[in-house]
# Entry
Amino acid sequence: MADWTYWLIGAGILIVAELFIGTFYLLMIALGLVFGALAAWLGASGALQTLVAAAIGIAATLVLRRTRFARSGRRPAANDPSINLDIGQRVSVPQWHGGRARVMYRGALWDVELQSGQDAQPGEHEIVEVQGNRLIVARQ
# Structure
């Protein structure tokens, strides 16, 4: 078999592995291997094929890191309503004691803290974050 077929087989293996992993990084390395196959097809030496594959793979990976595909886009679980269903719910705070209170929520007593920059006024508040057993609330 010719050298370029080995490069393409390697690229195919990485593409299949990428289907199971779900990141784009293996695709970038596979792109480098495709360019290594192109260099082999054009008659470059083995060292030059490897150098081309490595350079393209590294460059493609660095370009990928600067795109939105490399960023997870997830927020911390403490204030992500798709993970923590308490975010956005309302609690009634009868009185505050220095920015803290105890309220009944979902059948249990919870410690409640006021979000920074908020006035400590009794009444309805919205849960904006959950930190352990503390609800961080804001007046809405």
Summary: The chain has three helices and five strands. The radius of gyration is 27 Å. The CA atoms of residues 20 and 32 lie 20 Å apart.
